[in-house]
Amino acid sequence: MTTQELKQRTFEFGIRTIRAVEALPRSETAKALGRQLLHAGTSVGANYRAAARARSRADFVAKLGIVEEECDEASYRTEVIEALKLLKPRRLANLQRSKRVAGNRGGVNQDGAVRWP
């Protein structure tokens, strides 16, 4: 997958995250989880773009680690939202499918070796 394709996919993940957060109920719990999910979900794309502009391989690896952390945090928030049944399963399925693509270890091949763009 190319850098441009991953930029697009992580952007789409951010958009799906925003739409899912907008669909949450207005309870205090949902608002708190929504803010956290919104931050993590939109950070994935922003941090991937930063990784793509890395000045060195070490910088790229460090920034890609942040992408992975944000993806994992978004995953956790999504799991909590699912457990609390705050969103319809279909809405979550779209977000989770998108998350798997976005967090598909962009820049890291199947052997775990890092590919600097």
Please name the CATH topology: de novo design (two linked rop proteins)
* Count of separate DSSP helical elements: 4
- CATH architectural designation: Up-down Bundle
First-residue to last-residue Cα separation: 11 Å
What is the number of domains?
A: 1
Radius of gyration: 15 Å
Shape: elongated
Rounded mean pLDDT is 87
Order of helices and strands: HHHH
Count of DSSP strands: 0
Structure overview:
The protein is an all-alpha fold and 117 residues long. It has helices at residues 3-23, 28-52, 57-83, 89-102. It has a single domain (3-102), classed as Up-down Bundle (de novo design (two linked rop proteins)), CATH 1.20.1440.60. The chain is built from 4 helices and no strands. Helix 3 (57-83) packs antiparallel against helix 4 (89-102). The mean pLDDT is 87.
Provide a compact summary of the structure.
This protein has 117 residues and is an all-alpha fold. The protein has four helices and no strands.
Task: Please supply descriptive tags for the structure shown above.
117 residues; de novo design (two linked rop proteins); 74% helix
Topology:
Layout: H1 3-23, H2 28-52, H3 57-83, H4 89-102
Helix pairs in contact: 1-2, 1-4, 2-3, 3-4
